[in-house]
Amino acid sequence: MHRVGIIANPARPVVAGLIPELVRLVTSRSGKPTLAADLAASASEAVARGECVVVDSDERAVEGVDWVIAIGGDGTLLKTARLVGASGTPILGVNSGKLGFMMQTTPGDLGDALGRVFDGRYTLDKRLVLEGRIANDVFSALNDIVIDKGAICRVIELGIYINDEYVNDVMADGLIVSTPTGSTAYSLAAGGPILAPDMEAIVVSPICPHTLSNRAMVLAARDRIRIEVRADHPDLLLTVDGQENVVIQPGSTVELYRADHTIHLIRFTDRSFYDVLRTKLKWGER
To answer: What's the pTM value of the predicted model, to 2 decimals?
Structure first.
């Protein structure tokens, strides 16, 4: 029996309407859905029949399952990636949001997608994860880690070192350090390049640099990055995957490097990364 975790935002109307059908589809293939109590309220009949495992949090909904369904946009998938962490549990993204670069299917195609997964007709994309450290605090990101000037409308100075070699001082609104997965997110908006998701690389993109010669850099995944924060005002922000904010102070040192684990995304072979780019970025349209 497959144990299938389900992660979604129960406040979204589309989610409330989708959960009963999703539970039915999973149980019809002898699967056992596991979901948090607030999400299970949308499938009360299935819960009453004992067809679901109801737990008290999303953290517990991904424990001990064979794979996880994340329903929403890229933010929901990023949250799910943080929940599964280094466990290697595969994630199937179902796009009910707007852009959904990382999502593999839609609510309308959910029956077919679940059938493929239950039958083993899929591949796993093993996505590079970025790790950051400030003193004894460690953070992991599937998309990016961003150093931002915070609420003060003033550029900040950041010293960049790679493998302990000084590279440059950047005067900018901030700095984005992204994985190949995150290259289509904030880094892209800041003028960074698009990387194929299976590349072994890390992108460093300044945000609105004061000097036009300060451009995005593509580094090897094995490189270790050190950022020295030389701003003269407090309450700068370090943001992890757009979901966790950490206040950092002038004089702080941020170390960034490839994590030891990867995140596994379920993929179907009939839809390539370039299909996604054409669709999401509307390439080729006139």
So the answer is: 0.93
